[in-house]
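Long-time lurker, first post.

We've been arguing in lab meeting about whether fe (ii) ion would sit comfortably in this protein at all. Half the group thinks yes, half thinks no, and nobody has a model to point at. So I'm putting the question to the forum: if I give you the sequence and the SMILES, can you give me back a predicted structure of the complex? Inputs are below. Any interpretation is welcome too.
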Amino acid sequence: MAAAVSNAHKRLIRVLRSACSGELAAGYAYRGHWKSVSSEPTRERIRAIEAEEWHHRTIVRGLLADLGSGPSAKRETMFWLIGKTIGILCHIGGWFIPMYGAGRLESWNIAEYEHAAALAREAGYVHMIDCLLTMAEVEWEHERFFREQIARHWMLRIFHVWQPPPPKATIRLPYAEIQSFGRVAARI
Ligand SMILES: [Fe+2]
Ligand SMILES: [Fe+2]
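Top reply:
Settle the argument with this. Predicted structure of the protein with fe (ii) ion, as tokens:
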């Protein structure tokens, strides 16, 4: 394996390990979040988001296994604790803070999967790209949902809204030349 490819392979594993634990924390945080919300449609949407995060985690674990790796035990423990703690805090932190925090985090998640897709290309794992970009697109929808929730909330006089991501269609733009990604079968 050439040095640059080997380096991209290692960086991809690092990013996916981070994403894997991030999904664990997100899953537990959203479980607490939807349970703390009283509006039925909002509860249902956050509940669906929770399910999508668990699905992402399954996919990421599969990708890590394909790369001959797996989640970091230390990171998993830490993020399990973070997720559980946020899940509990959602019941006492009011309505705005969990929505705002989730939106900010989702914005980060889009970039994380875009970064993973770029590394997959660099490392020669072209078949992983479509799956990573699909997860970035799902995170984009999550970010939009939370941003719309807090729009025009009076607390935005204190908290600044994060920079909105570019349009969803731009996620795939850097890969326009790749005709067939060779999807990771049956994972998405
Ligand atoms: Fe996710
Ligand atoms: Fe998400």
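For your lab meeting: The mean pLDDT is 93. Residues 23, 26, 53, 56, 109, 139 surround fe (ii) ion (ligand 1) (CB under 6 Å). Whichever side wins, do check it experimentally.
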